Automatic annotation (TrEMBL):
Organism: Pyrobaculum aerophilum (strain ATCC 51768 / DSM 7523 / JCM 9630 / CIP 104966 / NBRC 100827 / IM2)
Keyword terms, alphabetized: Metal-binding, Transferase, Tricarboxylic acid cycle
Family statement: Belongs to the citrate synthase family.
Active-site residues, Swiss-Prot/TrEMBL: 289, 346
Pathway: Carbohydrate metabolism; tricarboxylic acid cycle
GO MF, any single term: metal ion binding
Cystine residue pairs: 19-394
GO biological process entries: carbohydrate metabolic process; tricarboxylic acid cycle
Protein name: Citrate synthase
Broad class of enzyme this protein falls into: transferase
Coiled-coil intervals: none
InterPro entries reported for this sequence: 2-MeCitrate/Citrate_synth_II (IPR011278), Citrate_synth-like_lrg_a-sub (IPR016142), Citrate_synth-like_sm_a-sub (IPR016143), Citrate_synthase (IPR002020), Citrate_synthase_AS (IPR019810), Citrate_synthase_bac-typ (IPR024176), Citrate_synthase_sf (IPR036969)
Positions that bind Mg(2+): 304, 308
Organism ancestry: Archaea, Thermoproteota, Thermoprotei, Thermoproteales, Thermoproteaceae
Length: 409
């Protein structure tokens, strides 16, 4: 067997072990080549398929951006129309999935989303065909066509799952998807049963654009790990949802707004920020990033939107004012400056949602509604050159212990 020495350039934390250095949290470890998204963490720049996020946020829609991420280029007018029409056809859920969501009405919606995606996969005939093919190692043109159709279905169905959960959790009847509304507007319509305010629809659309992909964070990596075993796309997405839920990742958007609500006044910002700098103190949610050592470009864009939103609809709970005061403290505090910790995308994202009447438990599910396209695009990219993920751990326990029968212990 040939041995190769691989050097990993990391500025991250290394743990020493008897077997050699451990790159804690896989910081800077490359898992594949990608042409989906790129991040310049030092300068705070994000590209999807070569386009700057600012450009897409200003000029595009989630429908167009999700097509771009999935298919690698911007669609023609005709391609976009066909894509949108297919998505509208796929919005409905299998009746068994609706029952799963109903049964989890009292659970946090991220649990329901995870279970509903798995359920939808169990009932999708295309998925069964793909599973059969993958089980004999076949992934050719026909299977790729199935995989892309499943990817589109996943993107189309996520808002229906989230909105249905909201309706069931409030004891309301579901509102069926409406074909004449776009992805973002239809989502708000299914949540609240009325045509949304155009600024609210724009806010959801903008948020969906900004969250569509981000290279390989924990959730996308989780999707790769599952997909690398040749498990199916729905299961890979369910795993990604599970990873996104944590407060160190997508769950931070919910936690950030809950903190602002708890704080209640901008006057407490200094105290809260100071507490986060103490050893063992609570981390400030929505601050810091593994890759960005500069202001997160998505946070900048959504901050502007939140400012516009509260300018129109007010800031009765002081959420924008509190976040602004915290941001000011963070940016001027040596603790955060030395560690290059800046507000991330989760810092501002929940404020406008909260004022749209969306309960904070639904913030992370909306993140998942957007990121699903990144997850599936990455899995499809990885399947072009699949190899099972199987790292190693350095065993530091004892060996060859003598088994003592139960009655002698
Ligand atoms: C969509 C997203 O997933 S964006 C991220 C959302 N998550 C959050 O907002 C949660 C808060 N932030 C964090 O927990 C972290 O910054 C993460 C998880 C985002 C990144 O974690 P890592 O890259 O592992 O950074 P790490 O935890 O090593 O932090 C480096 C240093 O900054 C400190 N630090 C990092 N984030 C924060 C924070 N939010 N508040 C206070 N201190 C922080 C750490 O304590 C550590 O200090 P030390 O060097 O003195 O030990
Ligand atoms: O890249 C990360 O680690 C987390 C993040 O910002 C995202 O997934 O959008």
């Amino acid at each position: 067997m040939s041995e190769q020495t691989v050097q990993v350039k990391t500025t991250g934390k290394i743990l020493q072990s008897p077997c050699g250095p451990i790159i804690h949290g896989l910081e800077d470890v490359l898992i594949k080549s990608t042409s989906i998204s790129d991040i310049d963490g030092e300068k705070g720049i994000l590209w999807y398929r070569g386009y700057r996020i600012e450009e897409l946020a200003r000029l595009s829609t989630y429908e167009e951006v999700s097509y771009l991420i999935l298919y690698g280029r911007l669609p023609t007018k005709r391609e976009l129309e066909d894509y949108i029409n297919r998505m509208k056809k796929y919005r409905e859920l299998h009746p068994a999935t609706v029952e799963v969501i109903r049964n989890l009405a009292k659970a946090h919606p991220m649990f329901a989303l995870e279970a509903a995606v798995a359920a939808e996969g169990a009932y999708d005939e295309d998925n069964q065909k793909l599973i059969e093919a993958l089980s004999v190692g076949r992934y050719k043109a026909e299977e790729k066509e199935l995989a892309y159709r499943i990817a589109e279905k996943l993107v189309a169905k996520m808002p229906t799952i989230v909105a249905y959960h909201y309706r069931f959790s409030r004891g309301l009847e579901v509102v069926r998807p409406r074909d004449d509304l776009g992805h973002a507007a239809n989502f708000l319509y299914m949540m609240f049963g009325r045509e949304p305010d155009p600024l609210a629809s724009r806010g959801i659309d903008l948020y969906l654009i900004l969250h569509a992909d981000h290279e390989v964070p924990a959730s996308t990596f989780a999707a790769h790990v599952v997909a690398s075993t040749l498990s199916d796309l729905y299961s890979s997405v369910a795993a990604a949802i599970a990873a996104l839920k944590g407060p160190l990742h997508g769950g931070a958007n919910e936690m950030a707004v809950r903190n602002y609500l708890e704080i209640g006044t901008p006057a407490k910002a200094k105290e809260i920020v100071e507490a986060a700098t103490k050893p063992g103190g609570p981390k400030l949610m929505g601050v810091g990033h593994r890759v960005y050592k500069a202001y997160d470009p998505r946070a900048k864009i959504f901050k502007e939107f939140s400012r516009d939103y509260v300018a129109k609809f007010g800031d009765p709970q002081n959420l924008f004012a509190i976040a602004s005061a915290i941001e000011q403290e963070v940016l001027s505090h040596p603790y955060f400056q030395q560690r290059k910790l800046y507000p991330n995308v989760d810092f501002w994202s929940g404020i406008a949602f909260y004022y749209m009447g969306i309960p904070y438990e639904y913030f992370t599910p909306i993140f998942a509604m957007s990121r699903v396209v990144g997850w599936v695009a990455h899995v499809l990219e990885y399947w072009e050159n699949n190899r099972i993920f199987r790292p190693r751990a350095c065993y530091i326990g004892p060996h060859d212990l003598q088994y003592i029968p139960l009655e002698q212990r």
